Amino acid sequence: MDLIDSFGASRYDIHDLELFRDAVTPAVKRALAPCKVVRLAKGEQLQDSVRAHLYIVLSGALGVAAETAMGEATIERIAPGGSVGEQSVLDDAANLDTMTALEDTELLVIDADLLWQLIDEHNGIARNLLRLLSFGIRKANAMLRRRQKLGEFYRQLSLNDGLTGLYNRAWLADMLPKLVMRARKDTTPLSLVMIDLDHFKRFNDTHGHILGDHALVTAAGVIKDALRPSDFAVRYGGEEMMAILPNTGAQAAMLVAERLCSRLRDATVFTDMRLPLPHVTGSFGLATLSPEQDELALIAAADAALYRAKQAGRNRICS
Q: For a FRET experiment, which of 17, 139, 252, 279 has its CA 20 to 30 Å from that of 174?
């Protein structure tokens, strides 16, 4: 950063600066005349580690770095007439933002004591400063809302299986205990169906893992489409999936499981019927929450029923 002039001897017009808009008087000009004008080369960082200053961009552009909630850096571009450091002056603290010249840039440097003097003596400057701070707060709030939306997007993304789009184990660990608590509180039934695609290892060995993934996606779509809007489809792991059926007793859950089993059996994984094993089937284990069970016991009961369905010949439902 090189000192090139004083503001009074520079070519710049005070009327072009936002902070002094409609607030220029001979006294203001005299006060600013001794202030330094410094030059930053493109890519050079502005250092303000000693005490707070206000920096007004006279030419070029200054980039102020901020970090998003996801750890990514964003750059706010400060154009000529704009300023940086208002908050640090008010806090009487060093400006810790990373400020970098986006091109060759000249800055007016105003000491904190002088800025406070100008604020005390000139109401117009005080109003302009409040307006600039208000704009900054609005911009920060808008950025915060965008970050919150982005954070919610990533949170939802983290709760879905990347291959099938179904909910994943993280979602299950968070939501199933809540669904169990709600069922107990409302004294409503809750059922769970465990689904395992039959002979899926043989399917993968026959067609390869890429087409095996296609079969998983197809099966997941069949299951999701066959459920009601109030139900939840989860990829439990590998070729094992789960349907959670709130407010559903054993008899109604059996009807849902029969619909899932039938639609999975009828679904065509590949349109080329010359391929072996163009269909997949599933084994289904059904359990309904009992008074003594928690979410882990409910899963265990459905898993035990699933094992019985496999032992009985697969492509069927046991409860």
A: 252
